[in-house]
Specification:
This protein has a domain at 3-184. It is 44% helix and 1% strand. It contains ten helices and two strands, in the order αααβαααααβαα.
């Protein structure tokens, strides 16, 4: 919240170049008429109308800083920052600066009126009555005093820090209408200025320090938990007993078609194909009849007795 982003504050600084031009125009106005029998009194009356009375009014109701005398920013269209800055106008130093400008206007008017005859050949206001010339001079003094106050106020507000502005309470619309002198048509709605923030360049590391700087270590991967290992049986542990062997299978006679010289394809060779049994080959199985156990035992006893 910085006041330097308000464009109207910068426009008010044009008064630095306009005030000398207005003083030159005042010289041309006074050069168009001859001074009367009491030039000192005439100058005092002109100063009282053009500088003293307006300074008393501006001390009570300062000139609105968002007014350019002919144009102004609408009261209802003002931002919060603008209303905060309007409250900062009520400073004792600004009132003293306005009074000082009114006091300086008297010697300026006195000196210009005394040397106005120099610009008589160049003035466009030739053969102008003295009263009209004094009234025009008083009007120029009012404008010069207005611009003087606006110039001082703008310099004052531009020098305020963002912290001071943020701590100031905004001025309400009713207070603006009662405490500030807002002149001009409400047609000004300028957008705030976008000030670029300065970015500090990165500091360059000297070569000596760059060499001494340790290299960045590679990232350490987290250790993975060891895989579950199958516990091995101790050497002394005896293997479980094998189940009893089954009785020998009966003898199987091979068919006559198959001879012992027939080559059996090896299962290890990948290209060998399993043998295909022919439908004509029939396996014959000779089964020996089992003798009953009682008869076998009786025959053995008879042999022992005999």
């Amino acid at each position: 919240m910085t006041p330097r982003g308000e464009p109207l504050l910068w426009l008010q600084l044009i008064a630095l170049g306009v005030l000398p031009l207005e003083a030159l125009l005042l010289l041309l106005v006074l050069a168009g008429s001859d001074p009367g029998p009491l030039p000192g009194l005439e100058r005092l009356l002109c100063w009282a109308i053009g500088a003293l009375a307006p300074s008393l009014l501006l001390a009570r109701r300062p000139a609105d800083v968002w007014s350019l005398l002919l144009l102004q920013t609408p009261l209802r269209g003002r931002r919060e920052l603008q209303r905060r800055l309007s409250r900062l106008q009520a400073a004792p130093g600004l009132a003293l600066a306005t009074a000082g400008g009114a006091a300086l206007a008297l010697p300026l008017l006195w000196w210009i009126d005394g040397h106005a005859a120099v610009a008589a050949p160049l003035t466009p206001f030739a053969s102008c009555p003295r009263l009209v010339a004094l009234l025009l001079a008083a009007l120029l003094l009012v404008v010069m005093l207005w611009q003087w106050q606006q110039l001082i106020q703008s310099l004052w507000l531009l020098s305020r820090s963002p912290e001071v502005v943020a701590a100031t309470r905004p001025l309400s619309l009713e207070e603006l209408e009662q405490q500030r002198l807002c002149l001009g048509l409400p047609l000004l709605l300028p957008e705030p200025l976008k000030l670029a923030e300065a970015v500090a360049p990165p500091e360059a590391t000297p070569p000596d320090e760059a060499r001494n700087t340790p290299a960045a270590e590679p990232p350490v991967e987290p250790e993975r938990p060891p895989e579950a290992q199958i516990p091995e049986a101790p050497p002394d542990t005896q293997a479980p007993e094998a189940p009893p062997a089954s009785p020998p299978s009966p003898a199987v006679e091979l068919p006559a078609s198959e001879s012992p010289d027939t080559e059996v394809p090896s299962s290890e060779s990948p290209d060998a194909e399993p043998p295909v049994a022919e439908p004509s080959a029939v396996e014959s199985v000779a089964v020996e009849p089992e003798q009953p156990p009682e008869e076998a035992e009786g025959a053995d006893l008879d042999q022992e007795i005999g």
